[in-house]
Amino acid sequence: MLGHARRNRYAVPAFDCVEDVMVRAILETAETLRAPVILMCLPMDLSGNGMIYIPRLVRAVADHHPIPVALHLDHATNLDLVKSAIDHGFTSVMVDGSNLPFADNVALTRAAVDLAHPRGVSVEGELGHVGGMDLDETQCGESVATEPSEVVRFIEETDVDALAVSIGTAHGVYRSLPNLAIDRLRELNAASAVPLVLHGGSGTPDDQIRAAVAHGICKLNIFADNRIAMAQGMAETARAFARPDPLPAEMFRGMRRAIAEVVTAKIQLLSAENRAWVEEADA
């Protein structure tokens, strides 16, 4: 998917998702717009029965939609979770060693590749570190910019399939608007033999996202924008309830509509609309 995006100068939207409401809204919207899409799962959502429910749901419904769909593990930091995701049908995994020293990051990412590639699963690594607020809104990590001089060595030593880079975005909701280092991105893309990924896509100004895609970003991770939309949709629906026992379809309608609006906007922003293909040798 990312090779197709790189050759055709667009980016694939990648949405962290949980349960049916998000999965269905994202896939149905992507199908309407004929866009490839990546559904991602975070480690916290795979605890307990999450590793059974979410990937089985996605795999059960993905073939119903005539668009390319990938199931991606987002931000794994240990190999046990990577192996479990592969065993449960994920088609792609991200192992995040970005907080480690370079050599340790290489070793962790290489080990994930050795687990994944024999099973036909692709691997995303991260070089540099995208900071920002954690999901509990309790800690804010500092970002470390990706160094172009390290890109070639990292890719050669890990055999990774995609590389997440740090150029000024942050996870979570921004306290102030970012200013992406597009000149640095241009250098990173020139040095990289694999497609580049941008984390922290929620809240980043549209003009900066367009510039990032124009200079090499092939996958954009999105989560906070959908969480905000879901909360707003749920609140609007709750205010409109005409009875104390609303039907589930009524309760979910506002959330699905709000998610669909975000997904539509991101697909169009990334120039991913009408990029779906039926068959391609490397798809």
Keyword list:
single chain, 283 residues, alpha/beta, TIM Barrel, 8-stranded parallel beta barrel, two-stranded antiparallel sheet, 10 helices, 10 strands, 45% helix, 16% strand, globular, disordered C terminus
Please give a structural write-up:
With 283 residues, the chain is α/β, with parallel strands linked by helices. The protein has one domain (2-269): Alpha-Beta Barrel (TIM Barrel). It is 45% helix and 16% strand. The protein has helices spanning 2-8, 19-32, 50-62, 79-87, 102-116, 148-158, 182-191, 206-214, 224-240, 248-269, and strands at residues 12-16, 37-41, 69-76, 92-95, 122-127, 132-133, 140-141, 162-165, 196-198, 217-222. Helix 2 (19-32) packs parallel to helix 3 and helix 4 packs parallel to helix 5 (102-116). The radius of gyration is 18 Å and the shape is globular.
Topology:
Layout: H1 2-8, E1 12-16, H2 19-32, E2 37-41, H3 50-62, E3 69-76, H4 79-87, E4 92-95, H5 102-116, E5 122-127, E6 132-133, E7 140-141, H6 148-158, E8 162-165, H7 182-191, E9 196-198, H8 206-214, E10 217-222, H9 224-240, H10 248-269
Parallel strand pairs: 1-2, 1-10, 2-3, 3-4, 4-5, 5-8, 8-9, 9-10
Antiparallel strand pairs: 6-7
Helix pairs in contact: 2-3, 2-10, 4-5, 6-7, 9-10
